[in-house]
Amino acid sequence: MDEREVGSSELWGEFARVGKALGSGTRLRMLDLLAQGQRSVESLAQTMGLGVSTTSAHLQTLRHAQLVRTHRVRNHVFYALAGDDVATLLSLVQKVAGTHLAEVERAWEHFVGPGRGEVEEVDRAELLTRLEQGRALVLDVRPETEFAAGHLPEAVSVPVDELTRRMDELPEDTDIVAYCRDGYCVMAVDAVRTLRSHGRRAYRLNEGLLEWRASGWPVHTSAG
Questions:
Q1: What is the pTM assigned to this prediction?
Q2: In the 3-class helix/strand/coil scheme, how is the chain assigned residue by residue?
Q3: pLDDT for 95-150, tens place per residue?
């Protein structure tokens, strides 16, 4: 093998580090959560229902591939995406899988349960049109900590598990467009179903903060 072939092998081997890090559904989900905002190891472990040591091992694989970065606050290590390009990469993985694997749609249908067809969707262009015309409210139904870390401009935060209790805070004569983490996040589906059962005109944005961030659109944060 000549020197150029050796160099080519080394080069593709480095690319494979990223591919290896992405080769786990658990790690892909971790990246999706980190796309919402930085997290401690303990927070990720709790959200995903994993042990801290297992979570740390997966994060070290992601860190080895330079997909995440860390910083320490007292005794806690916080992880974040290494850059918005990682969000773009994750979004493309979802898009390619959804386009070419029929199993993705079947898994999604199983995930959201019966009645998905009752949940009307709008895309980003339609959302922006309705906002410009003053006839839509953007509803972020993720946990408040994720909303504070980053959200769509003009979005209002009402976590999905608080929606029924706080229904009176939402207008009855305005289109409500709900979104959550990504295009495969079920929280927005549940939110639209709840809103419609209370007589609201509700729609699901067909993407989430992941795709919004990956496309380079502005993301706002909340003080504190």
A1: 0.91
A2: CCHHHHHHHHHHHHHHHHHHHHCCHHHHHHHHHHHHCCEEHHHHHHHHCCCHHHHHHHHHHHHHCCCEEEEEECCEEEEEECCHHHHHHHHHHHHHHHHHCHHHHHHHHHHHCCCHHHCCEECHHHHHHHHHCCCEEEEECCCHHHHHHCECCCCEECCHHHCCCCHHHCCCCCEEEEECCCCCCHHHHHHHHHHHHCCCCEEEECCCHHHHHHCCCCCECCCC
A3: 999 999 999 999 999 988 875 557 899 999 999 999 999 999 999 999 999 999 99
Q: Catalogue all structural domains in the chain, each as residue range(s) with its CATH number.
A: 3-82 (1.10.10.10), 107-214 (3.40.250.10)
- Positions marked active-site: 180
